[in-house]
Write a structure and sequence with these properties.
Elements: H1 6-31, H2 35-40, H3 51-59, H4 62-93, H5 99-109, H6 118-132, H7 140-163, H8 168-176, H9 181-192, H10 194-210, H11 213-218, H12 226-236, H13 245-265, H14 267-271, H15 275-279
Helix pairs in contact: 1-13, 3-13, 4-7, 4-10, 4-12, 5-7, 7-10, 8-9, 12-13
Length: 280
């Protein structure tokens, strides 16, 4: 039943759309406007220009930051997605000592703010470098390990919740036919779990893509991610005669584009579940 009259519903939806889209439209228009016009407060550009998109690659090392973000965040997403489904399968389908404690620990880890772990992680990596001589801070793989420690527990919990909804009858029928646990996982569980795998992988990707706090501490100019590059870009323009707002807007749109493309590619997995179709 519709709770609101149609005219009121249309007005509410229009207000919500305007609330979301107006800032996006402003960023898009500012990215093709001159810095002077944006600083002056002009909403509509007097002359459209694409110079901002060509200048951002030299003004700030955005290309290197994007490459580092894709490598680190993409690696975390792939590892989290497939480690999470394997770990969740063991936790859901097998009984062993400490299983409930492990599940409760996964849930408890979500309540710990990441800022509280910044100093312990930094000290741990510094101590590891001192003892072994292997440098961790300032490397991409050190940032990869950092993000993995935060993303993997949540991804595992997502897959535990998802696998609980899969019928056991399919796995029991496969065991009767002589299938091993590995074969059941790869041939039955994984194909039916693609929506959950995609959700857990995208969460892990966004965690690495949007993070600024850990990336600003754990990286150097060579391993700097796109989010830190934008932060440095904005900080270097403070106090200037004319802040390059147009270039900042263009850089923000370029950094947001991979996330939008990722959503468009996996939209059908995120919006609709495929479990029912797979079972049928």
């Amino acid at each position: 039943m519709r709770l609101l009259p149609r005219p009121l519903l249309v007005v509410i939806l229009a207000v919500l759309l305007a609330f979301v889209l107006i800032p996006v439209v402003y960023i898009l228009l500012a990215s093709v406007n001159s810095d002077i016009a944006v600083a002056r407060g002009d909403f509509w550009p007097t002359a459209f220009t694409m110079e901002n998109y060509s200048k951002i690659w030299t003004t700030v090392a955005l290309g290197r930051g994007l490459a580092n973000s894709v490598i680190v965040a993409g690696g975390v997403a792939l590892v989290c997605a497939f480690l999470a489904v394997a770990t969740a399968y063991v936790l859901v389908r097998f009984q062993f000592r400490g299983r409930l404690t492990f599940l409760r620990g996964l849930l408890a880890l979500q309540s710990i703010p990441g800022t509280l772990l910044l100093l312990p992680v930094f000290v741990l990596f510094s101590s590891f470098a001192t003892v072994t001589g292997v440098q961790v801070i300032g490397t991409r793989w050190g940032l990869f390990i950092t993000y993995l420690t935060f993303a993997l527990p949540f991804s595992t919990w997502v897959m535990v919740t998802y696998l609980r909804g899969l019928p056991r009858e399919l796995e029991e029928a496969a065991r009767i036919d002589g299938a091993s646990s590995w074969r059941i996982l790869t041939r039955i569980v994984v194909p039916l779990s693609w929506p959950g795998i995609v959700v857990s992988g995208i969460f892990a990707f966004l965690l690495g893509w949007n993070d600024v706090l850990f990336a600003s501490i754990m990286t150097n100019p060579d391993s700097r991610t796109a989010a830190v590059a934008l932060q440095v870009f904005g900080a270097t323009q403070e106090g200037g005669a004319i802040p390059v707002y147009g270039q900042m807007m263009a850089a923000a749109l370029v950094c947001a584009l991979p996330v939008v493309v990722l959503y468009l590619i996996f939209q059908r997995y995120l919006v609709g579940g495929l479990t029912a179709g797979g079972v049928k």
